[in-house]
Structure formats: C-alpha cells, structure tokens
Amino acid sequence: MSQQNPPDHASPIEPSAFQPLEAATDAPSRQFQPLRWTVAGLGLLFLLIMGFLLTSRSLQVIVVAQSAANIDISGLALPFGERYLLRPGNYTIEVRAEGYHPFTTEVTVTDSDSQSVEVVLQPLPGLVSIESQPAGARVTVDDQHLGDTPLSDLALEAGERKIVIEAERYLPLQQNVEVTGRQLPQQLSVALEPAWAEVSISSEPVGAEILIDGETVGTTPAVLEVLQGEHQLMLRQTTFANWQQDLDIVAGQPRDLGTVKLQPAAGLLQLTSRPNGANVTLNGEFQGQTPLELEIAPGRSHRLAVFKPGYRRHSETVQLEAATQDSRTVTLQAQLGEVRFRVSPAEAEIRVNGRPRGKGSQVLALPAVAHRVEISLPGYATVKRSITPRPGLEQLVEVSLQTEAEARAARIKPEVTTALGQTLLLFNPADSATADFTMGASRREPGRRANEVLHPVSLRRSFYLQTTEVTNAQFRLFEASHDSGQIEGKSLNRDHQPAVQVSWQQAASFCNWLSRKEGLPPFYRETNGIITGYNPSATGYRLPTEAEWAWAARSSGEQLLKFPWGDDFPPANPVENYADSSSAFVTGRVLTSYKDGHVVSAPVASFPATDKGLYDLGGNVAEWVHDVYTIPSANGTVQTDPLGSQSGDNYVIRGASWSHSRISELRLSYRDYGQAGRDDVGFRIARYAE
C-alpha cells in the first residue's frame, strides 16, 4: 500500500455516483437497432432494383403525330428517356394525343436487348365550312353529295379531297382541298362564274317573239341571258317572215346583234292533189309532194307544176298577197296502161292496191304508176307483186300460186343471225304505206341544213338490217388490234359499246370479210384491199343505203318522224344517248335538263327499240351508210332503191351521237359526211334479201 502525502488543506470527503455495469452496456444496443433494419431494407430494395434492371429489356415507343402524346403501358414499365424498361412478357400500350383517334395495341417484349414499336395516330376529321356565291349550290366531296351551300363544320377525313360545287346556270367549279383534320376548322369560299352571256337584240318592227332552240324567251327589244354553247335564235312576228341565226355563245362574252329588219311574210298556199303524193315544183324548183304548204313570195306571179308518174302534168300560174292564205286541190288525169293477168288456179282473187279487181285471168287498164298487186286463194300462199303499166304497151303477169307448204319452204326468213351472233331483221318497204316517201327537210324547218334537199325516193327491194350497231367485241373478231380509245378518262373501248374510230373503208371491208366467212357473194369490189365499187345484185353484207336508213329511222305507220321521239323539241324523257348534262366537260355543249345516264357512248341496246325493233338509230353513235356523199338535186325525179355512185372521196353519215345536242343534229333528216374514223361514228350492217 502506497503512502500519499496529505493535501495542503483538508477537503471534505463526498460519495461518487454509481452506474450499474449492465445498464451501461445495454443502452448502446437499443439505440442502433432501427438503423440495422433500414440498412437491411435498403439492401433488399437495391437487390430488387438490380434484379429488375438485369432482367428487363429496353422498348422504344415511337409516336407519329403532330401533338404531344400520352403513353400508358400496362404492368411495370420504367421510363428511361424516350424508352421504357420492361421485363419480357405481353403488354397493352395505349396512346392518346389531342386531335387524334386513341390507339391501343398489344406488344410482346422478347429477350432482345433493344426493341421498338411505331404507332401512327390517325387524325380526327377536320371541320370544313363551305359557302358559295350564289348560295344554294350543290356540293359533292369525292363524288358524294353532301348538301347545298352554305355548309358548316362538315366532318371530312384528313387528306386531299376533291370538292365540286355546281349551280344551275353557272360553270361547275372543281377544287382539290387539303383537309388538315384533327378537328381543326377550315373555311372554303368560292364565287361561281356565270355559264351565260348577255345577248342584246332588237327588231324592226319591235315586239317580235324571240325563240331560242324553239322556246319563247321574250320579245324585242331585249337583253337575254343565254347559256354557253351553240343555239338557234329565231324572231317571229305576225305577217312577217321568220328570221333565224345560229349563235355560238361563250360564257361571259356579251353579244350585240343590233336591229334585225324583218321581211314581209310570204303567202301560204295549202296544196292537195287527187291522188296524193304528187310532185310539186314552183318556178322549176322541187318543193315536195302533196299534200304540202307552199310559201308564195308576194307581189309577182309564180309557175306551179303538179305531176306524178302515170298521170298528166298539171301547170298553172299562182299569185298571193303578203301574209294571205289560200288552198286548192289539183285533180290529175290518169294515163292508163293494160296489164294482162294469167292466173292459176282460176279461182284466185286479184287485188290492186288493196282493192278487189276480180278472179282468174283477165286484162286490167291501170294508171301508169307503180301498183301493189296481191293474188290470193285460201289454202295457197299469197303472191305480191309490184307493177308499173306503160301506156300503149300491154304487160303480162303470170302467177301460179303455191300451196302453203310449198311457199313455206321457199319463204325468206324474217330474221337472220350472222356468224358473229348479230341479229338482222327483214324489211319489205314495198308493202308499207311509206314505200314512196320524200327524203330531206323543208327549208322552213328549224335546224334544217342546206344539204337536206327534198327529193322523192321509192323503196321496192326487201332488205335485212342489223338491230344494233356493230360492237367492239364483234369488230375485233375482224381486226384484233382495234382500239376505240377513250375521252377524258371515259372509255369507248368496252366490249358492248359500239365500235368507233372506224373509217368507211374499214366498215365496208368488215362487211366483205363477214360475207366470205358465211359463203355469201361479197357486195363490195376490192382491189389490193381497197374498196373500189360495189355489185348491186350481190346479197352479201353491206352498209345500209341512205334511203334504207332514212326509211327505217323515220317511217312510222303513214308518217315520217322528225325526231326519234316525235315532232316536238326537246325530248321530255330519255329516249336516246345524247350530250346530256353529265357530258358538259367532254362535249362543251349539252341538251339542257336532259339526263340519259351516259357521258360517252352507251352499251348497244341500252335504250328502247323503235317500233321496227331497231336500237340506237337516232343516237349513241352516228352511223356510216353506203352512199357516196352528194347534195341531192331538187328536180323531182323519183329514185328507186338508190345506191349512189360506185366510189367517191366522202361518204354519208346519218343519225345523231352521244356528242350531239342541238336541234339541227337530233333531227332524223340531219346529214353529215367524211371518210376517216371518228370517236362518235360507228356502223351497222345490212344485206338484200334476194
């Protein structure tokens, strides 16, 4: 035990504080236990994150849109810049953006390290408003009618849209508009251009009735709004002669026709004859056949002649005052010729022009004109003949009737079918009331052309005529490479459309080819593949003669039609394929308010047949006929079964087509000519029955 020195001064002795050893060692342990759990939790979280990062794959979602997109992915997806970290598996992705349709898709994340998916959002429709001047215009978008202007907030799909705005009497407007979409508003305002021009006209005297294409539109003086295209203008005033002029109107270009001085009207002579159908000349110029109305220029005398084969010629002088009317009937004196009939059996009855003239063999004195003779007996086939007696020269007619069975074997078929499947019908004009008729048109007929000279013809020979125009499919069996073409994207080349772009030479060559195919004697003469003439006695296929075409198109009972539908213009209902309102962008001129459903040529037989069972004679395409083109002579000489010249530079075209609309062209007496192929000219075939 060591010894300590006592302090310098005495200090009191105090007890020291006592702390148990166990308590001192436990206190630090309780203080640091929560930290241990936190560390453990963070460690576990770190392990989970590392496990996710080590097992996840990168997926990039590319959104094609002009607006910011919101992307939702089902399940655990960790955004990482423009990518997402996901574990392999199936996920649903939903994408939304303002102005676009929502998009949902299923995606499979594979074990590949980096993957991507592209989402192209479809924009919502745009809101397009359309207004026009004038209002009330018809609006079509991509060929679908959506209403009339003004139109507000039309929901149109995004992209380029073809918008057409049309109003009556205005030029149609077509515009391609890029629709933004995304429910963004767009405004389209247009001013339509007038489809007319102002036409000013006056007359002396004033107050004349103004007609455009046959319709009254006012009285002079007047300023008229006339639609663009070709029109016929006429002034009509009581006691004055009609005045007319063709107009070619360009929209927006006014015309001033000045003052028209009307001429005093001619006198009118209503002329009839006994018998009817006599030829009439005035001052040596052929006027037509009775009954007819003659215009007599006032203030002087005129030489009138009335004549008919088999009758004595009648001549006299006529004179009428201005705007007066008169009527007279001329009785012609018959010139007779004797005809001896030798008939077997003796009980057979003879009829001349439908009237009984006795039975058995006999001699008849008949006017020296053509007569229809029928010899008949029950149980026997009736025989029909055409005879023309000659004064001072006796004619002999021998007829031996056949039984019905004998005649049936020899009878000509009423219908034939070609090797190409074409149907031809038999026609016997000599048995009709219009076998003798006048071709052409009166000079006073609205729309009449100078080449439509009135001249009499007579059809006595039976013939077959195709019911339809030759189609592309039929013509290509002859010329495989034939192409009828197209106009403004509208095809003329479909199988059942009529073959066009065919020259007259090609059409005639087609007829010869078909004749040889069926063993018939060719009608046309050919030299080195060129048609140089024809054989009138051949029964092979040919083009119809102009007289046959005119008779087939115009004769209806005892009448001659002016138009395929009758005598009034324009047609009330679709009867043929003409230039209707849908053809304006192709033809430039149309038949107002007429709709036939075809922009260019229609399939053959698309419209009703005539009373003769023929299709498209007055429309669809114009047609080549056989005759060389000439202007007929107005001398009154009757031509029987005329065929025209053997050859020439141009050939006659008859009938209107899908490109025609004017009153002049739609008349059945309208004549055109040419030699080369055209997009509105085709043909049909014919042949003589015997």
User: What does the overall shape look like?
Assistant: elongated
The total strand number stands at 52
Q: Could you tell me the radius of gyration in angstroms?
A: 48 Å
Average pLDDT:
90
**What is the count of structural domains?**
6
Proportion of β residues? 35-45%
Q: What summary fits the major beta sheet?
A: 4 strands, mixed
Domain PEGA: 86-123, 127-193, 196-253, 268-333, 338-402
Protein name: PEGA domain-containing protein
Keywords: Membrane, Transmembrane, Transmembrane helix
Organism: Seongchinamella unica
Can you walk me through this structure?
The chain is mainly beta. It has six domains: 51-120, Immunoglobulins (Immunoglobulin-like, Sandwich); 126-191, Immunoglobulin-like (Sandwich); 196-261, Sandwich (Immunoglobulin-like); 267-331, Immunoglobulins (Immunoglobulin-like, Sandwich), CATH 2.60.40.10; 336-410, Immunoglobulin-like, CATH 2.60.40.1120; 415-688, paralog of FGE (formylglycine-generating enzyme) (Alpha-Beta Complex), CATH 3.90.1580.10. It has eight helices and 52 strands. The strands form 16 sheets. A four-stranded mixed sheet has the order 3-4-1-7. The radius of gyration is 48 Å and the shape is elongated. Residues 1-13 and 20-29 have low confidence and may be disordered. Pfam families: FGE-sulfatase, PEGA. Residues 437-687 form the Sulfatase-modifying factor enzyme-like domain. Residues 86-123, 127-193, 196-253, 268-333, 338-402 form the PEGA domain. The chain crosses the membrane at residues 35-54. This is PEGA domain-containing protein.
